[in-house]
Amino acid sequence: MATVIEAVKNPVESEKITINLGFVDLGQIELLVKEGFYSNRTDFIRTAIRNQLERHEEAVRQSAARRSLDLGLRRVTRQDLESFKARGETLALNVLGLAIIDPDVSAELALDTIASLHVLGSLQASPAVKAALRGRIG
């Protein structure tokens, strides 16, 4: 079952993406900004994306539940992984949103305890942990 995870201190609130738009689409956006419907291009694009996500909200929820994805933010601490290791268990992380593996998690501990990692969104982890888990990231 999908879970909603609470936000943690100082998470990155957004990630920059780049899109290409046709000249006519871009011109229409510029016109709406000039007419005061939106404060800037980014405001328009965020609003359009949110409207589409809202429109497909139920489909996203059903798909996330079917795939057993954690929704929102999933933070993995060194203590979490040490507990898994002590019990002889491994962790399969499936996240729709933001997955954070704390900076104090060593590459060795991550390899010992994280069996698989699938993130639809963004992963924050040290370069060493990302490199160690490269073959387990799906």
Automatic annotation (TrEMBL):
It comes from the Bacteria. Coiled coil: none annotated. Signal peptide: none annotated. Gene3D superfamilies: Met repressor-like. CDD domains: RHH_NikR_HicB-like. One of its GO terms (biological process) is regulation of DNA-templated transcription. This is CopG family transcriptional regulator.
